[in-house]
Amino acid sequence: MPAGQARARKLFFSFHNTTLDFQSISVFYPSVTPLLRMSRSILDNALGAVGNTPLIRLDKIAAREGLQCNLLGKLEYTSAGGSVKDRIAKRMVEVAERDGLLKPGHSVVIEPTSGNTGIGLAMACAVKGYSVIITMPNKMSLEKEAALRALGAEVVRTPTEAAWDSPESHIGVAQRLQKEIPGGIILDQYRNVNNPLAHEFTTGPEIVEAVLGTPSTPSKPSSGKVDVLAAGAGTGGTITGLSRAIKKSHNPKAIIVGVDPVGSILALPDSLNVAGAGSQYIVEGIGYDFVPDVLSRETGIVDHWIKSTDEESFEAVRHLMRSEGLLVGGSSGSSLSGVLRWLKSKEGRTIAQTKGANVVVLLPDGIRNYMSKPWFLKMALEAEPSPLAKRISSILQPSSSTVSTDVDRLASGIATLTIPDLDNRPGHAGRRVEF
Ligand SMILES: Cc1ncc(COP(=O)(O)O)c(C=O)c1O
């Protein structure tokens, strides 16, 4: 048995004065195991609640798509800061502290990000007492900026269309600030080895542990291994680290599917990036106009690339919400729609029709980040009225003029509430937020 599997099986828990391994507890006390895992001890601070996210069956979507394999979602929005990027933020800060690069009372953490790494860093720095400046393209949501400011970070917006190596881009502005601000340090998610390592050491082993810890039964068959893993790529740290974790110490034959939006250049072969080259897309967090160092392009790290569109991503988000009850963000829809497309390819069809094959989809963040975005409001408020809507109206309208089931009023109320007057604050004149 490979070392990773053996390690995962050797999780021991003390329960009623008896020492049982995790699999035995799962079999004999299925309802208490989630409780046991969550309540092992008191956490020192929010960073203790980073990661340890659930792996959840997406059975209704699998059935709709005619899949025989298991479709499983790794739900990262349950992490303390709300995304998969909490993991790298925590690791980059802790390693920099260990190496003496971060000094309490002196260091100012500066990071260019599409938002989630910034939120993770701002959370870590709130806990540890460092100042933070986040540079972020205009395209990224108001909710991310609000969360960052609530955590105490300064936020500088940059033009979305600026090329990554121009002085106006989020990367260029962060570099300019770092040169001028005493104690300024860029931990640099695009180059920091602790970005992929966070996933190799935590996200990947958690997925493997969940698969190994779930026995195969006649009603829920399992191959006992991760057969396919799909994830979107931004910096590429997630997919690179996950691939290493799974292929090196669990299943060398696992197939890794990378998802990259049309308009980005991360996919291989390069010919995949020609259609729609340079076009803008709405989904946040994935795709770039340069290849970050942490995205490994070695053969066998990412086996297949799929190009995703906004439309199919948002449609997949709708299914994850409506069918599975999962309040995920846009890039989760990209990963899901990407892997569903791959499962229709020649190689993918064999896996799709194999009972018990485990296909894991990474779901990087939640809808908290996108509540005011038109794509979400449209999906939520223009959804087909449920059969109950008419019944509710007929019961309530004759007796009360204050009760409303009117979707337009709801929509305008939400739009007003979610656009606070931040532009009136000093230093914010001319700031632009794109929707
Ligand atoms: C919402 C979202 N999805 C996906 C990703 C991609 O992760 P990675 O940078 O590890 O490739 C990010 C990265 O910021 C993100 O914020």
CATH class term of the largest domain: Alpha Beta
Query: Gap between N and C termini, in Å?
Result: 50 Å
Largest sheet: 6 strands, mixed
Please list the strands of the largest sheet in the order they lie side by side: 3-4-12-9-10-11
CATH topology of the largest domain: Rossmann fold
Alpha-beta classification: alpha/beta
Shape verdict: globular
Strand content: 5-15%
Overall pLDDT score? 87
Find the count of extended strands (DSSP E, 2+ residues): 12
Rg, Cα atoms, Å: 23 Å
CATH architecture of the largest domain: 3-Layer(aba) Sandwich
Number of helices: 16
Low-confidence stretches: 1-37, 417-435
Enzyme class: lyase
InterPro entries: Cys_Synth/Cystath_Beta-Synth, P-phosphate_BS, TrpB-like_PALP, TrpB-like_PALP_sf
Pathway: Amino-acid biosynthesis; L-cysteine biosynthesis; L-cysteine from L-homocysteine and L-serine: step 1/2
Cofactor: pyridoxal 5'-phosphate
Would you mind describing this structure in some detail?
- It holds the Pfam family PALP.
- Its EC number is 4.2.1.22.
- This protein has 435 residues and is α/β, with parallel strands linked by helices.
- It has three domains: 42 residues, no CATH class; 201 residues, Rossmann fold; 103 residues, Rossmann fold (3-Layer(aba) Sandwich), CATH 3.40.50.
- It is 39% helix and 14% strand.
- It contains 16 helices and twelve strands.
- The strands form three sheets. A six-stranded mixed beta sheet has the order 3-4-12-9-10-11, sandwiched between helices. Strands 7-6-5-8 form a four-stranded parallel beta sheet, sandwiched between helices. A two-stranded antiparallel ribbon has the order 1-2.
- β9, α10 and β10 form a beta-alpha-beta unit.
- The radius of gyration is 23 Å and the shape is globular.
- The N and C termini lie far apart (50 Å).
- The N terminus and C terminus are likely disordered.
- It binds pyridoxal-5'-phosphate (PLP).
